[in-house]
């Protein structure tokens, strides 16, 4: 071999060596500077075992700050490091887990034999059970691979109480609905962790000392909800739905009109917060196993849905309060008691369409505005709406908060459903003016009437009034929010006075409570078009001289013998609730004994009787007979005209002095 060949080979070898060295240098640089952080993280994960420490979720109190509505208690979670459990111990460890915690053997055995660094065996166990595991570990000399760590579990001491407001949490303590979801960041706190160093194979290094990073507990909340008022309202919501066979449930909302504090909010039926995935419908529960996953999820979502804020309804005649307020504020009408200012002839023609009064067969005749509200006379409010005009009326819809969400601090809020202003003609304005052919949420209606009650201010409703710092105990008050001025104090007083007459003498007299001067308005509306379903409602203010609360009762599709009229069905429920709530709130009575206690009588069966016989029977009970769809009763032969149907139905308790409506 020549010298030149040897030199060439040495040169080539040197070049190859240099190339390899450059490649290795570049690789090291890539690993060091580009992949360094990622590999460092992977090494940390491989060489350390991090177990999370869940913080205690903040407590939720009612408005007193004493009654606990939701609380987290200490439980324990069991995890394992499979690589630290000796091979010969894996089977008996699996059996111990299954015996103590009633687990599936095959599933547990797979976890124990995995080559992962950590596996969760079971979460949120009472200490009684985990103590059994501790004793077993001691008896069997198992010192490594099994971890028992403190955890928290959410409890709701009153089960169903305020379920749609409070909401619930998931298995990871994450808020899933209601206040729990809306204020999750405040309630949840910050996780801590336990760190244990291991080798590359997952074996513990050294004496197995652990490093603790403490969890920070979540802050607590004080709600505006009064547990006692909420309990009273829930009791009567349930009774109302059972007695009146309300197939689609009910909403009742009680709010302080002065600061927006929601004192009670009920969507019936409620559900158990400690078992949020157990359906509250007996029929569905019986067939639960036959339902598809989609059907189950739909049923649960419906059960959790807070209809008071998430669903809309047609308010009916309760909305005449808004029309009255706008008309007085705009000076379309100035006096509430001017005799003969309005006249009801039984109907009114608007743009070629004739719209009837509910009592078209016997018109109200000459009326003042007060009398029109007491009689709930549609033509009067249609006329007021036409005088106000579309543009100005929509200004008031905006001011009263119907075109936007209220801003309540709960998830899933909806807003009112109205035609676009540009599409509203004379007929559409007419129907809006007496509360039909649009929809609002129950909370929107309560918020609007609260503006009437408090002197004219639109207040933002709320369910949380205070936050308590978990570390310092410091209390942070959440200030009420007044959005805007809607009407003047003068208009407010006039409308409140008229509402007082509705309860004292008009369609809302069944809402009376002895000793208190209450105001209100009844409503009956269709639940959808051509559904043959109705919403019966009553909205009230207590008291009209010093308003401290606004209450709305809305019953969906009452099909009982009591009928579906707001004055006959919803108003009495308001009387029952307020009869307990007002004394509890220690509200001063207006004039002791001025409002006489109303005598009730049992509705007799007058079907099949002629008109003369029926009038005689009813007169003895201080009841009056009204014949539907008859314009002139003088033309009726009372002895030869027989009653086919009656409302209320026989056996129903009604107030003495009430009207009985019959069909012939």
List the defining traits of the structure above.
664 residues, alpha+beta, Penicillin-binding protein 2a (Domain 2), Beta-lactamase, 4 domains, seven-stranded mixed β-sheet, five-stranded antiparallel β-sheet
What do you see in this structure?
The chain contains 21 helices and 26 strands. It is α+β, with helices and mostly antiparallel strands. The chain has 4 domains: 3-48; 51-223, Penicillin-binding protein 2a (Domain 2) (Alpha-Beta Complex); 309-598, DD-peptidase/beta-lactamase superfamily (Beta-lactamase); 601-663, Trypsin Inhibitor V, Chain A, CATH 3.30.10. The strands form 8 sheets. Strands 2, 3, 4, 5, 8, 16 and 17 form a 7-stranded mixed beta sheet that branches. β19 and β20 form a beta hairpin. α13 packs across α15. It is elongated, with a radius of gyration of 35 Å. Residues 44-48 have low confidence and may be disordered.
CA-atom Rg in angstroms: 35 Å
Unreliable parts = 44-48
Mean pLDDT, to the nearest integer, reads: 88
The fourth-level CATH homologous superfamily of the largest domain is DD-peptidase/beta-lactamase superfamily
Give the terminus-to-terminus CA distance: 132 Å
CATH class term of the largest domain: Alpha Beta
Shape: elongated
Tally of discrete structural domains: 4
* CATH architectural label of the largest domain: 3-Layer(aba) Sandwich
- CATH topology of the largest domain, what is it called? Beta-lactamase
């Amino acid at each position: 071999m020549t010298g030149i060949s040897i030199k060439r080979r040495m040169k080539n070898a040197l070049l190859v060596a240099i190339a390899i060295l450059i490649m290795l240098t570049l690789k090291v640089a890539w690993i060091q500077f580009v992949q360094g952080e990622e590999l460092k993280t992977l090494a940390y994960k491989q060489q350390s075992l991090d177990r999370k420490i869940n913080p205690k979720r903040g407590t939720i109190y009612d408005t007193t700050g004493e009654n606990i509505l939701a609380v987290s208690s200490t439980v324990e979670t069991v995890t394992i490091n499979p690589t630290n459990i000796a091979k010969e111990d894996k089977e008996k460890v699996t059996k111990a887990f299954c015996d103590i915690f009633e687990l599936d053997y095959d599933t547990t055995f797979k976890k124990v034999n995995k080559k992962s660094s950590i596996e969760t065996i079971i979460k949120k166990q009472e200490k009684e059970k985990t103590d059994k595991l501790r004793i077993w570990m001691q008896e069997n000399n198992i010192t490594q691979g099994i971890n028992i760590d403190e955890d928290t579990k959410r409890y709701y001491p009153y089960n169903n109480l305020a379920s749609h407001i409070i909401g619930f949490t998931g298995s990871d303590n994450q808020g899933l609905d209601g206040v729990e979801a809306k204020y999750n960041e405040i309630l949840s706190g910050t996780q801590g962790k336990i760190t244990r160093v291991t080798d590359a194979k997952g074996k513990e290094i050294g004496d197995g000392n652990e490093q603790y990073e403490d969890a920070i507990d979540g802050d607590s909340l004080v709600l505006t909800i009064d547990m006692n008022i909420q309990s009273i309202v829930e009791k009567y919501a349930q009774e109302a739905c059972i007695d009146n066979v309300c197939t689609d449930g009910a909403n009742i909302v009680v709010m302080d009109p002065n600061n927006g504090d929601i004192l009670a909010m009920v969507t019936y039926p409620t559900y158990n917060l400690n078992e949020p995935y157990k359906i509250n419908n007996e029929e569905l529960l019986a067939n639960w196993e036959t339902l598809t996953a989609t059907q189950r999820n739909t049923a649960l979502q419906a059960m959790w849905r807070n209809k008071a804020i998430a669903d809309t309804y047609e308010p009916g005649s309760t909305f005449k309060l808004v029309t009255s307020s706008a008309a007085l504020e705009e000076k379309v009408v100035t006096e509430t008691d001017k005799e003969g200012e309005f006249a009801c002839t039984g109907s009114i023609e608007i743009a070629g369409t004739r719209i009837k009064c509910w009592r078209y067969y016997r018109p109200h005749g000459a009326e003042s505005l007060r009398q029109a509200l007491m009689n709930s006379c549609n033509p009067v409010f249609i006329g007021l709406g036409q005088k106000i005009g579309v543009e100005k009326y929509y200004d008031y819809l905006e001011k009263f908060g119907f075109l936007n969400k209220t801003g309540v601090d709960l998830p899933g809020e909806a807003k009112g459903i109205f035609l676009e202003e540009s599409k509203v003609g004379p007929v559409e304005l007419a129907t809006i003016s007496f509360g039909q052919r649009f929809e609002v949420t129950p909370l929107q209606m309560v918020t609007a009437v609260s503006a009437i009650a408090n002197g004219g201010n639109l207040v933002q409703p709320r369910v949380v009034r205070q936050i308590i710092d978990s570390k310092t105990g410091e209390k942070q008050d959440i200030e009420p929010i007044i959005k805007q001025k809607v009407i003047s104090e003068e208009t407010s007083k006039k409308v409140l006075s008229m509402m007082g007459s509705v309860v004292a003498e008009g369609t809302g007299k069944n809402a009376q409570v002895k000793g208190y001067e209450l105001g209100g308005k009844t409503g009956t509306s269709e639940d959808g078009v051509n559904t043959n379903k109705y919403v019966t409602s009553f909205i009230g203010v207590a008291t009209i001289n010093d308003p401290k609360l606004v209450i709305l009762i809305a019953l969906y599709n009452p099909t009982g013998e009591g009928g579906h009229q707001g004055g006959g069905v919803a108003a009495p429920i308001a009387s029952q609730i307020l009869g307990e709530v007002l004394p509890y709130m220690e509200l001063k009575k207006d004039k002791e004994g001025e409002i006489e206690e109303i005598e009730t009588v049992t509705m007799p069966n007058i079907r099949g009787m002629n008109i003369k016989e029926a009038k005689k029977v009813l007169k003895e009970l201080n009841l009056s007979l009204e014949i539907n769809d008859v314009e002139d009763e003088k033309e009726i032969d009372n002895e030869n005209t027989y009653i086919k149907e009656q409302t209320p139905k026989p056996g129903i308790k009604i107030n003495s002095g009430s009207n009985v409506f019959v069909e012939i």
